Amino acid sequence: MSEGSSSNQERNQAIRDVVKGASVVYAGLLAEVVIAFIAQVIAARYLTTGGFGGLTVGTSMVNICGLVASLGMASGLTRYLPRTDPPAKRALVRTAFVSSLPVAVVMGVGIALNAEFIASGIFGDPEVTPSIFVFGLTIPFATALNVAIGGIRGQKVSKYRVYVENFIRPIVRLSLVFAVVTVGLGQLGFATAYAVPYAVGALVAVFYLFRVLPGILEESTLQSGSTREMTRYSLPFIVSGAAGFMYRSIDVFIVLYFLDSQAVGTYGVAYAAARLIVMFSTAFNFLGAPVASELEAGENVRDMLSVHRSVLRLLVIATIPTLIPFVLFPEAFISAVYGSKYASGSLTLAVLALGFAVHNVLDAHTSLLQGLGRSREIAFNNILAASLNVGLNVWLIPEIGILGAALATIASYFLVDLLMVVEVRYYVGVFPFGLTVAKPGIIAVPLLVSAFLLRDFVPGRILWIVGFTAVFGLVYIVTVLVVLGIRPEEVMLIRSLEERYGIPLGPLDAVVRRFS
């Protein structure tokens, strides 16, 4: 077999791995979105805006602390498990847990014991005390969950991640939310309902991680150098993770400091709705980093870029239709779904949705940098973005409220995305995207302008908004097919998915043949 043929086969297999894994993760994400959406809407409608703000503060706190306490080991396992011999895999996993869990316990207990001081003394809002206390005790479980999911990613077993993150945790949360509403509990009850799934998810994820690891082999074959190398790679992610949280979510705490928990509740609704757009890149990035690492380890950088461009094109096509409900009908969407008491966050929702749409595509570059082993560059990017975010938040929130938080968050996302594009260009020698990726976005411009002009004719009810979005999406996809056709890599993906899941395309098969 020729070298070129072997390279093409390896590239095609890598694309199959990413998209098949992404299809599993995306199916799970759809299920999670529906389940989590129901739980969130119940909480938002049942609690006061301040109570929902307290819940938002608590979940943000446990996520950042769980990330920092994991010491970057989740990212380390994602990178090094795919390239490590079976005997050393368990040693890497043991190192990750032994290093991170003690830090998590100290951090969690310290926050829980000082919940009242943090709420009243620092933020000046005692209403969030119950959430800080409950979620403080949850930090060790969140840390174990992060590390275990990182290991599962490293083993490229996407179904276990789906089981834990997209089914078990959301279902447990929704069940507890129903119980809280039935009993008539307040913020403390909802905080517990949101916190318990972290513990359940952590236990199940750890079980699955050790299930997918190779059996215990002779300890003499373990390579301590691999453990040291993974630790050196992982530690920058402490800073990277903390800084990444700051440019993504520090606005919640700054809004609480300058405004109050009611403003946090309104902002939290807008932010959570806009974040739905990012689920596409979440699905692809799950296997993107380990596959990129595997290709880079084999010095197949060109194949790595080919895989990446195919993913970017699909992300552009998937992202465009999601803008319709959030950007064209933000007030109607929020009022219909969460209640009119959150309607003041409509402009914030539109701004966040536009920013997240761009980030949904460009965030895929994170997988390339992780695959290239550039953890320090990722940390540097996040530190710059965090600094910009904090500065803009402190300046804008007192002036224009939660809209300032949205502008600060989006500016930070743009900065980190731009830095990643430049760094990938520097290390690889070519830009990771081109006209192949840009063309679907260019085609969408006149269609989006037309949708904007037609929006006044659409009744502001949720069924009309969903219907209008569906029609736009259909018109857009048909236009992309007619103008651009289907690329050979995409045909290969469609055929592999058809074979994997045994789902015949039927009439769509003629469409694939016609436009490929």
Automatic annotation (TrEMBL):
Q: Where primarily located?
A: membrane
**What GO cellular component is one of the record's annotations?**
plasma membrane
- InterPro entries linked to this entry: Poly_Biosynth_Transport (IPR050833), Polysacc_synth (IPR002797)
- The reply on keyword Transmembrane is yes
Q: What is the protein name stated in its UniProt record? A: Flippase
A Pfam family (short name) is Polysacc_synt
Task: Report how it sits in the membrane.
Answer: Multi-pass membrane protein
Location of this chain's protein in the cell: Cell membrane
Q: What keywords appear on the UniProt entry? A: Cell membrane, Membrane, Transmembrane, Transmembrane helix
Q: Where are the transmembrane segments?
A: 21-43, 55-80, 92-112, 132-150, 171-190, 196-214, 235-259, 271-291, 311-330, 402-422, 429-450, 462-486
